[in-house]
Amino acid sequence: MNEVNTTALLERVKRLERQNKLIKLTGIVVVLVMAFVLLVGAKEKVPKEIVAEKFRVVDTQGRTRAILSVLQEGSELLEGSGLLLYDEKGRTRVGLSVLQEGSGLLEGSALSLYDKNASIILALDQKGQRLGFFDKNGKNRALLAADQLGTALYLLDENGKTVFSAP
């Protein structure tokens, strides 16, 4: 009977030693993983400033949904700097820009709304406020202006020629 108890006791001690080794090994792995995560996280620094000429935001399918950039000559919006927002089909729907001087009837800050057949641009500058209506070809078709001299309304044909103005 003494041999049976001794054998059972030895088996139990071996099993406890295996469990103890497994617990120690698991603890070491957990400590190493946590140290790795802390060290990697400590090395990442948040930049205080990001400098770029253009930022493009895309959706999960990789389609452009927004652009913040300096707008170049011939861009879909007038020259200057601005933010453009696109729909799921890639069409420009909203634009917010700071327009360059000499970019035409509309200068200064502008808010633009687009549809596939027309656009509306509201501009504010030192001269006053202007609301322009553009056709699908980007041609100015109507302009409402208010400045220190008063208000005015201009209606233009497809060639940009004034067909009506008031006053």
Key words describing this protein structure:
rod-shaped; 167 residues; alpha+beta; 2 domains; 10-stranded antiparallel beta sheet; Outer Surface Protein A, domain 3; 1 helix
What would your notes on this structure say?
- The chain has 167 residues and is α+β, with helices and mostly antiparallel strands.
- The protein folds into 2 domains: 1-45; 54-166, Alpha-Beta Complex (Outer Surface Protein A, domain 3), CATH 3.90.930.
- The chain is 25% helix and 43% strand.
- The mean pLDDT is 80.
- Strands 1-2-3-4-5-6-7-8-9-10 form a 10-stranded antiparallel β-sheet, with no helix packed on it.
Which spans have pLDDT < 50 for at least 5 consecutive residues? Answer: none
Whole-number mean pLDDT: 80
CATH class of the largest domain: Alpha Beta
> How many helices?
1
Helix share, percent: 25-40%
Annotation, overall tally of beta strands: 10
Choose one word for the global shape: rod-shaped
What's the quaternary structure here? single chain
CATH architecture classification name of the largest domain: Alpha-Beta Complex
Write the layout of secondary structure elements.
Elements: H1 2-43, E1 54-58, E2 64-71, E3 80-86, E4 92-99, E5 108-114, E6 118-125, E7 128-135, E8 140-147, E9 150-156, E10 162-166
Antiparallel strand pairs: 1-2, 2-3, 3-4, 4-5, 5-6, 6-7, 7-8, 8-9, 9-10
